[in-house]
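Exercise 7b. Backbone tokens:
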């Protein structure tokens, strides 16, 4: 069974540190086993300036079993994340925040020898400039406009006194429509 007290503690830790890390995590529709994370693109990479959404599912054994994470924002063809700590190197001492920081680090230093997407890995190794150009294009197209728009909506609604988690849930439930989300938040 998921340790929901720990999950709530981890969500609070992420909220306290948002200014320093830029990482946010919130529940999807008030379900602590289904979360949405956001990480900023690392500086000095083709992903710089982007905000990347990551879907997170917590298995029954969490924190003794690793969370399942995949990019919702297009970064590669599949969105899958190949990271050892999300598999056999997971430890209950790790947190959602450390896992998201590791995903962010993976954007800074991809592992082409252990890829999730073999085509992208080959491009990284053999045609690096094409890899960079493609990654920048995907960042501009998928991680800047839509994600920043969402973040601006979240910020506006949070400034009205609603919690980050409730705002994200309402925006998700209304397909990102800020006015409908506000109506949903006000109606309780």
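Sequence design result:
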């Amino acid at each position: 069974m998921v340790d929901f007290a720990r999950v709530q503690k981890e969500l609070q830790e992420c909220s306290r540190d948002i200014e320093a890390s830029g990482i946010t995590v919130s529940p999807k529709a008030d379900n602590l086993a289904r979360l949405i994370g956001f990480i900023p693109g690392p500086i000095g990479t083709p992903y710089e300036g982007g905000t990347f959404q990551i879907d997170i599912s917590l298995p029954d054994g969490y924190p003794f079993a690793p969370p399942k994470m995949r990019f919702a924002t297009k970064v590669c063809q599949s969105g899958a994340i190949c990271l050892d700590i999300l598999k056999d190197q997971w430890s209950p001492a790790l947190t959602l925040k450390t896992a998201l920081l590791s995903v962010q680090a993976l954007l800074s230093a991809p592992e082409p020898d252990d890829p999730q997407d073999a085509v992208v890995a080959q491009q990284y190794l053999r045609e690096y400039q094409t890899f960079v150009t493609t990654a920048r294009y995907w960042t501009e197209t998928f991680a800047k406009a839509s994600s920043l728009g969402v973040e601006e909506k979240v910020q506006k609604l949070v400034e009205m006194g609603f919690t980050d988690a409730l705002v994200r849930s309402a925006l998700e439930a209304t397909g990102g429509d800020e006015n409908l989300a506000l109506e949903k938040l006000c109606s309780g």
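Instructor comment: The helical segments are 4-16, 18-21, 96-108, 118-126, 128-159, 164-173, 178-187. Strands lie at 24-28, 31-40, 51-57, 68-71.
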